[in-house]
């Protein structure tokens, strides 16, 4: 099917389906989807729409330092949300920072989902010792507090990387450390549905004609376990963004040269008591808005896909 | 994976004396096959609670042979081991003891080799992958076994198969949930035929269907048997379903055959008390008000079967000997029977 021919029809079909009907009828769902869409679009269009590039030193002027938001007495155009002590525009920093946070959030969801789904499929399909081994490994990971684990992993990676590589690879280290703690949830979800599916007769029918186990897992079982995974992934996106912000806030995440929302909040926090409240409030509001819309969307998806609640 | 169970070195186990007549040639020979499952508690728990090992005897020393082109039916209540037997025949379950051997056969297209075995399942709602289109479901064995060289040929074959089972070629693009139970069972049959199967194991293929649809599916299966020379191993709990299509009949109770023989002989003159009990529960149109004893009791646990004859706790005519001594299968003409008294 050619993609361009299917495109307009696909949106139509989505809106006409059961899910689409529930989507249209749930204001929380389409509102948060709209907000999320605007946030994502503005973050990725940051180089085009931001008043300045806060990390290009030729655009930053130290005499514009610590200007309050535009609606206060000392506000100044074009610094809508004010500037920081180095003269950087807070709105631009937030847009660039959101982009970093979202990329790390999405990447850790994709990586932890890939890891968790694979482990869950193998454990659920083979059962027995392999299942025991993998699931006890998951239990062990879960027994360590998520944040502690992430700090540990990122500390180890930091030590392993030579100093000049630490800053460019900070995002990768974050993604790996968040993923290594988050995969367990996907693995458990997929394992549970795999154990149900592998006993179903369509799987037996495939086994009779001697389809290879890896193919049965990929082509038969995986598509039938993905519904709960999609719900978990959406809810986890909020969690991953928060984990990243927490790690950056604690100083083990993104460096000041590529700040994420968490880094901005950490920096702003230092100026909170000197009266520059806008440095910490606006990045925090942005973070809260992202996580809230993601969670509302996830909650709706969970209910919409649950046949018992229809 | 189960190659050693389902295939056989050429020539072995084939009797040259009756090798000429195709109808006499056994396509499947089962010799004293048993299947037991270890359902004990985990070793440590067992040690602490001093519980013994528990072995579930699903199938015990079952022997039979199925001549090519005939239907062999196995009848019994739930939990008597018929499904385990079916799973052993298709290679999903290894026999703990004994052997199942398929004889090499010469097919209509001139090829010679082990028969292709396929299974039709009980639940047409679980036997088709809900995410796959019907065309892909039927084409899967063709693609897996590389029976056609191109996608175009595969598509034509799928269309032909859909027509053979009474559906339309255009149904290939639809999803299983768009079909009724009977239509789904037709799709399952088309899929089984896609491998050019010679031997079909049917595990209660009609028990999930309406009575009117049951008859359609059974008639389709009889028609296909004539058309393609198929051999059926037909599993059912319902004697009236197997009556009009069986050549041979085996009555199973708690993992063992209690009576086997040509279907008409067993139906006309049931000897084992259990067979009689099963036959009495079939409603009769001609004698709607005849006295029917209800089937009493349940199948005992196959983990701790009763001593002696497994059927004695439910048997109306059981005597002391039945409690202590297990009756062996003995020949009585073409019938084989395991009962001290009948």
UniProtKB/TrEMBL annotation, chain A:
Pfam families: BPD_transp_1, OppC_N
Ranges annotated as spanning the membrane: 28-50, 100-125, 137-157, 169-190, 225-256, 276-298
Top-level taxon of origin: Bacteria
GO annotation, biological process: transmembrane transport
InterPro entries: BP-dependent_transpt_permease, MetI-like, MetI-like_sf, OppC_N
Membrane topology: Multi-pass membrane protein
Keyword presence, Transmembrane helix: yes
Family, similarity comment: Belongs to the binding-protein-dependent transport system permease family.
Matches recorded under PANTHER family: ABC TRANSPORTER PERMEASE PROTEIN, OLIGOPEPTIDE TRANSPORT SYSTEM PERMEASE PROTEIN APPC
Name the UniProt record assigns to this protein: ABC transporter permease
